[in-house]
Amino acid sequence: MKAIIMAGGEGSRLRPLTCGLPKPLVPVLNKPIMHYIINLLKKHGFSDIGVTLQYMPEEIRNHFGNGSDYGANLSYYVEETPLGTAGSVKNAEQFLDSTFIVISGDALTDFDLSRALAGHKKSGALVTLILTKVAIPLEYGVVITGQDGKIVRFLEKPGWGEVFSDTVNTGIYILEPEVLNYIPPNQKFDFSKDLFPLLLNEGRPLFGAVLDGYWCDIGDLTQYLQAHFDFLSGAVNLDIPARQVKPGIFMEQDVSVAEYAGITGPVYLGSGTVIGKGVRVEQFSVLGSGCTVQDGASIKRSVLWNNVFTASGASLRGAVIGSRVQIHPGCNIYEGAVIGNDCIIRARSSINPDVKLWPYKIVETGSVVRESLVWSTRANRRLFGTDGMSGIANLEITPELAVRAAAAFASALGTGCRVLVSSDTGNMSQMLKNALVCGLQSAGAHAFTTADGTTPLHRFAVRAINCDGGMHVRTSPRRPDTVNILFTGARGGSIPRSLERKVENLLAREDFSRTDSTQIIEPRFAPAMPESYLDWLLNNINTDSIRNAGLRVAAAYDPQNAGLLLEPLCNELNITLEPLDSEGAVQLPANWSEHRILAEQAADRITSRGLDFGVIMDPGADHFVIIDNLGRTVQEDMLMALIALMILRNRGEAVVVPVTATRAVENMAARYGGRVIRTKTALQDFYEKMLDLEHATNSASQGVAQSLLHFDALAAVCKIAEYLAAEKMSLSTLIDEIPAYFMTSKETSVPWEAKGTVIRSIAEDSDGHEMELLEGVKVYHPEGWALVLPDPDEPICRVFSEGSTMEVAESLADFYIDKIISIAGTDKKTQ
Questions:
Q1: How far is CA 687 from CA 485, 700, 704, in A?
Q2: How far is Cα 578 from Cα 580, in angstroms, rounded to an integer?
Q3: By C-alpha distance, which of 306, 294, 324, 228 is closest to 267?
Q4: Are 281 and 275 in contact (CB under 8 A)?
Q5: Cβ count within 10 A of residue 821
Q6: How far is it, in rounded angstroms, from Cα 688 to Cα 677?
Q7: Measured at the alpha carbon of residue 268, what is the angle toward residues 266 and 271, in degrees to the nearest 5?
Q8: pLDDT digits (tens, 9 = 90+) for 231-286
Q9: For residue 266, is the peptide bond before it cis, meaning its omega torsion is within 30 degrees of 0?
Q10: Is the pLDDT reported for residue 757 higher than 80?
Q11: pTM (2 decimals)?
């Protein structure tokens, strides 16, 4: 039986451990990862093994030789240039003349490969993918199979709304030699991205075998540590390469442990290790060969490679220490820290959590290392959420993080990129704006700044200055102690999820560009941008009709942010802004969700004084609420329907709405001969789809730009005013044209690890009803529909529903909330 081990991985996310060491040689319990793969293959009858190499091939060849130490025959196939996963196997084509298995050389697993092979032969598959179930499948390739195991769909690293299964591709494949005919020679070609979709489109038999057992794709430092913990705790059904001298205490040969040393299992001690008096080696610690731990030192949940010297009084907590590192007396190394090979940590120094030191670094006596020595700390949490990068000001979102994020963004955009940086008027926002500029300069980008202002002003300026992207800092409309850094693309919309991931990965690897000091570019200020923005708004509307109408509008806004643009705009249009009370502008709520209080005040003001309509907008002019002349609040679903109606009445063409929008939009589209394009709920998807439509139909230049109406409160005020003036109608008359509808939404807590199971279970149990999988699972019932949508930022799932009556809508929402609770095993739901 023949096998291929793909061992060309560089392991960039494991740096600094993989600086000078290919990933398959990274040790787990003092043995290279690939050691366990070879043994697993041997156990299941695979003795002729080809090894594909690309990064540092001689290191792997020298370590494993011809495989005789393992009772196997190893052959090596080196890629001169990267060929991708499938291309690397094609490179070994001469070796593969019968059914063979492909397995990664840097994953840890105990799968029953014999069972998978038997299933492959029984099914008559051309390819069998070995699958496993994971709790959170976002970072993996999700594979959807039919009842017979035949693969029907692939999803590469889906968002929560696309998680229709929790079975993922492990990167282990059983293939027939015929499959090599589909792989072009000497060019980059991947299994998941290229080969499998090709075979699926041609209807070739691809099957999935879901195996129980342990599997860990050791892709980053967290997973690397976890693999050790799992191995020691007995979760991995593989032999531990040492004798168990006491329960949970594994030792190789010639280990010396002094009296009064305390060792609490499970732990692993490599050959020749010396443990001094009073040393504490606590649970889930692994020490490689030749380590010395002097009197009184303490090690807990840490992994030490070979020949590490730990002096007296030193303390290690949750750290990874490379080979030949010297840790001098009294040092403290904290959780998540990673020290590369041959570093020297001198006496009484501290390495803070998550700091990484590249090889051969020296930390001087008494130092406190708060940032990595290449170039800064690594953020473990997911950086991007609904509102870009968000966190508590100066605690989670710091100037240091801003500098790194900007450098990573510039690196992702490419050499010589042009990036606009702006902020609102808050002091914290302006401080972070300056830090972002520094980060862009450090990466060699052209940085532009403009006057403080709103998010829509920033989106306009990115386009006006012809930038490749932008970053805007604002105080969160939801929490006054929180800031958002919004990342925008060349068209002013939020960057796509793929670019967010790229920025996150660059930050995780600390792998962003640094320009030569002589090439740093001075930032440029773009003058008169607020004036240009207002001119642009005015040029896109019929100003004369609005001026002649003399509209009066109740308004609540922040005079120091949105008001700096709203007031001169309304003056120009002869719109009278009336505050909600006689003493001036009302204090906006700290949390935008509390705007309903102001809506009630606005309704009283409008009806008592006969005003045309009212508007409440958040400080950044991103979010807004309209109140009609009868005092009715127009927000969320109704606001979406109103905007759709204005566009359909004006042009009768297409309108873009998210998957959560009411079916009344389709009814209005049918009335006016238009069509409805539904999209995902994420801001970047919604915004980009509208821009695509506007470009295709040239609608933005013909008076209607839907993107303005949804994401720019000032533009929405202009357009509503223009519409009412031109049509000589009241806002309430326009709203009454919207067909009646009944919608509700509810949410319930769902642990992160249960989200995939919830979505898969609901998708599989539709009870014969029509389903839509654009985002989440939308199930159509005779009298309505319900959409189950996992939240991307919080451990909750939401249910949106619409029915022929409110009772039906509520019933559908309750039905699916109860279903989610039953699947997830939770009992908490909220309205």
A1: 17, 14, 15
A2: 7
A3: 228
A4: yes
A5: 18
A6: 12
A7: 155
A8: 999 999 888 889 999 999 999 999 999 988 999 989 999 999 999 999 999 999 99
A9: yes
A10: yes
A11: 0.60
